[in-house]
Automatic annotation (TrEMBL):
CDD domains: PRTases_typeI (cd06223). The keyword Cell cycle does not apply. It comes from the Bacteria. One of its GO terms (molecular function) is glycosyltransferase activity. Keywords: Glycosyltransferase, Transferase. This is Phosphoribosyltransferase. Residues 28-177 form the Phosphoribosyltransferase domain.
Length: 234
């Protein structure tokens, strides 16, 4: 679906964007073999709505974008747990980065990734995704580097199926994802992306506190029978 930037379709906020992902994911509802993995921080409010509506497990997969030093919002790659590292060769050809500077960005983001894993996952055991259907959720994609790193981290655990579900992304990013996963859900596909936040009316930065509060709420819902299929790693 193509959208004129002058008359663009907007999501009110991340929660509503998450609810828009539920109908196309309805086949996965109330299945014990399904787990929704949010990419913090912005993906958590979206994924929370998906998991609660589908009555499936919710957990986190921490991924860090490697921002271009001269353009921090532009990804030159991404990292995920387990030593996963994805580099955007096109970006690095367009904006060459000194090797020492690249390594310093990787080191800094690795430190932040580990901090977030400790903060968000707490004492939860590592994810066990073998033979599971994994739905990866973020609040939107631009280059897709972070999602590619997430996919690689998930694939290393031999899941039965990988689904990517995002509210908005450009067509070229979605095309690249289709060759990496089993299914891609994206209701809004603008020809010109501009930025993820451009497609939201309300797009504040998601805080650590909000991430942890939503994960706590999801855990309470699961323990009270609000979601099907108890997680092995809860």
């Amino acid at each position: 679906m193509s959208h004129d930037l002058a008359r663009r379709t907007l999501y009110p906020d991340r929660a509503e964007a998450g609810r828009c992902l539920v109908p196309p994911l309805s086949q996965y509802a109330e299945r014990a073999d399904v787990i929704v993995l949010a990419l913090p921080r912005g993906g958590v409010p979206v994924a929370y709505e998906v998991a609660i509506a589908l009555k499936v497990r919710l957990d986190l997969l921490v991924v860090r974008k490697l921002g271009m030093p001269s353009h921090p919002e532009y990804a030159m790659g991404a990292i995920a747990g387990g030593g996963v590292k994805i580099l955007n060769d096109d970006a690095l050809r367009a904006y060459p980065v000194d090797r020492a500077l690249l390594e310093s960005v990787i080191a800094r983001e690795t430190q932040e990734l580990r901090r977030r894993e400790r903060a968000y996952r707490g004492g939860r055991p590592p994810l066990r995704l073998k033979d599971q259907t994994v739905i990866l959720v973020d609040d939107g994609l631009a280059t897709g580097a972070s999602m590619m790193a997430a996919i690689q981290a998930v694939r290393a655990q031999s899941p039965a199926r990988i689904v990517v579900a995002v509210p908005v992304a450009p067509p070229e990013t979605l095309e690249a994802l289709w060759s990496e996963v089993d299914e891609v859900i994206c209701p809004l596909v603008p020809d010109r992306m501009v930025s993820v936040g451009y497609w939201y009316q309300d797009f504040p930065q998601t805080s650590d506190e909000e991430v942890m509060a939503l994960m706590d709420k999801a855990g309470i819902a699961a323990s009270s029978g609000g979601r099907g299929g108890e997680a092995e790693d809860d």
